[in-house]
Specification:
Blueprint: H1 5-32, H2 36-41, H3 51-60, H4 65-97, H5 103-115, H6 118-131, H7 138-146, H8 149-162, H9 165-173, H10 178-189, H11 191-206, H12 210-215, H13 224-234, H14 241-277
Helix pairs in contact: 1-14, 3-14, 4-7, 4-8, 4-11, 4-13, 5-8, 8-11, 11-14, 13-14
Length: about 280
């Protein structure tokens, strides 16, 4: 038997998977560069020449409403991810390093929360916030995003592995309090894990559609996902909006790419430091 055959087979499978993931992105890039006529009557992956014109028309749509949606999305994702990372880091560290009655029960409930689909919680969250008259507000999207069971789970696992108990005991011997230990020792040690939680939560909020779709009714508070959906619905009567929707989808991807390229250095540093320690 040829020992190299499994390697070629694995490579082929990975290439097919990469093409499967990249093909929609290539389509968005080429479609965003086409006029409305080219979008429906030219070869699917053939590039057009109207990208800048489409961006200009999109920017002028309802006096720049698209960029208002992008700012709203950045607010929801940025603030929501920061708050969620803070809550996840503190909760995960507490569950990993403190012993108290009911700790296992709390962690099991959080694990159960990971398994609950977001669509199941959307209606109860709406009814709860409606009682406090918070629907159709920025808080109606931000508040449900703060608590992330998956983020707490990741933070707990990372805190248990990255923060040595001996270091905590040494800090307590020197007279440091719990909050100072968390801020000065735990947080620096957990940075790669916290960055992972932040990135996961940021992407999840940025791409979230159902929650803001249920909570919001005002156009000027929509995130980009709901805003593009409303434009797509208007495309049934105004076909020219289809190219603007595709262009808006392309532009909405760029902040996620930039964020990933910016934050990946934290994982690289962590891997290198682990190699040095080893």
């Amino acid at each position: 038997m040829n020992p190299r055959r499994p390697a070629w087979l694995s490579t082929a499978v990975l290439l097919i998977g990469a093409l499967y993931c990249l093909l929609p992105i290539v389509w968005v890039i080429t479609a965003a560069s086409k006029t409305n006529a080219e979008l429906f009557h030219s070869f699917t992956l053939a590039p057009g020449t109207a990208l800048l014109d489409n961006i200009g028309e999109l920017s002028n749509y309802q006096s720049g409403m698209y960029w208002r949606w992008m700012l709203n999305t950045a607010l929801y994702a940025g603030v929501g991810a920061l708050l969620s990372t803070a809550v996840s880091g503190l909760t995960g560290y507490t569950l990993a390093k403190y012993r108290f009655p009911g700790r296992s029960t709390v962690f099991n409930v959080l694990l159960a929360g990971v398994l609950v689909p977001a669509v199941v919680l959307a209606i109860p969250q709406y009814l709860l916030l409606a009682k406090f008259q918070l629907t159709d507000s920025y808080l109606s999207v931000l508040l449900p995003s703060v608590l992330s069971p998956y983020g707490i789970y990741l933070a707990r696992i990372y805190a248990a592995a990255a923060v040595p108990d001996s270091l905590i005991q040494a800090a307590r011997t020197d007279g440091a309090g719990d909050l100072r230990i968390f801020a000065s020792i735990a947080v620096p040690s957990m940075v790669p894990g916290l960055v992972t939680v932040f990135l996961f939560q940021f992407v999840a909020i940025w791409n979230n559609f159902l929650l803001p779709f249920i909570m919001l009714t005002s156009d000027d508070r929509f995130p980009v996902t709901v805003g593009l959906y409303t434009m797509l619905n208007q495309g049934n009567t105004t076909p020219a909006l289809y190219t603007l929707v595709v262009t808006g989808a392309l532009l909405s991807i760029l902040p996620l790419v930039v964020l990933f390229l910016t934050l990946q250095r934290y994982w690289r540093v962590d891997l290198l430091s682990g190699a040095v320690k080893g």
